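sry for the spam today, last one i promise. struct tokens for design, 262 residues
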């Protein structure tokens, strides 16, 4: 068992690393007793700190490491989730600044916006689809607070699953308007195609990743709320962001979404 004080210290160290834009070393090496459950306790504490100090609130949730491409890239073989805050939302109309970020990467995502609460423990793909108001193309900027983006599963969970910023397209699509298994995805950087994928690369169906999370959340007394935005996890590996880059994600049947880096 780890002491509450230690959990508070880790949460605060991660909070400061993000606020003051520097890397920290992994905690799992120093605290071999750090489990996945304890890591989610740290994540909760980190979110509390961020809501209080940044005067923001929870806007939704994100899944991480739900596709083979991402699991292989990061050497972690289980999905994770994290919390999205209102101040992480970025408008695609404006160039994105990298000033306050450590070593940001960007990846294509599908956003689900909920019209009903979704409460585990027996949530299925069908329940997720019924509770969804709409889906939209999205991108997530991840920015691990760990040195060289290296972490173990508990480390990345404590760090809110590397969450940093998110961008959601303005066009909304009903779940039956798009093929959430076979829909192709093309990810381009500076007009060059860097990765392709299909919606089903996320656990066979992105709604399956969300069902997995809903069934995990209930064990912690939490659930997906009506109005929440949920990112179902990257469909491809992530791309390192540099000043001047542009990124576009194009899904079959959805309007493409582009961002420009300042
Ligand atoms: C962990 C978060 C990954 C995704 O969608 O796979 C993630 C990381 O790679 O830093 O958000």
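last one done:
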């Amino acid at each position: 068992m780890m002491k509450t004080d230690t959990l508070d210290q880790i949460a605060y160290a991660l909070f400061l690393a993000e606020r003051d834009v520097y890397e920290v070393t992994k905690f799992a090496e120093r605290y071999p007793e750090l489990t996945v459950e304890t890591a989610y306790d740290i994540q909760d504490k980190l979110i509390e700190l961020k809501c209080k100090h940044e005067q923001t609130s929870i806007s939704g949730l994100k899944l991480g490491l739900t596709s083979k491409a991402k699991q292989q890239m990061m050497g972690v073989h289980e999905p994770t989730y994290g919390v999205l805050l209102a101040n992480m939302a970025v408008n695609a109309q404006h160039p994105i600044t990298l000033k306050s970020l450590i070593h940001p990467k960007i990846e294509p995502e599908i956003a689900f916006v909920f019209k009903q609460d979704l409460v585990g423990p027996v949530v299925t793909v069908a329940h997720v689809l019924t509770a969804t108001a709409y889906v939209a193309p999205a991108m997530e900027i991840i920015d691990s607070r760990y040195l060289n983006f290296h972490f173990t599963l508990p480390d990345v969970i404590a760090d809110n699953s590397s969450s940093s910023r998110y961008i959601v397209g303005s066009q909304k699509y009903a779940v039956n308007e798009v093929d959430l298994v076979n829909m192709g995805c093309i990810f381009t950087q500076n007009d060059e195609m860097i990765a392709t994928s299909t919606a089903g690369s996320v656990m066979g169906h992105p709604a399956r990743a969300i069902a997995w999370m809903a069934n995990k959340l209930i064990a912690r007394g939490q659930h997906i709320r009506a109005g929440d935005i949920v990112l179902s996890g990257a469909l491809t590996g992530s791309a390192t962001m540099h000043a001047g880059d542009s990124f576009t994600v194009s899904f079959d049947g959805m309007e493409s979404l582009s961002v420009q880096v300042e």
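The radius of gyration is 17 Å. ok im logging off now
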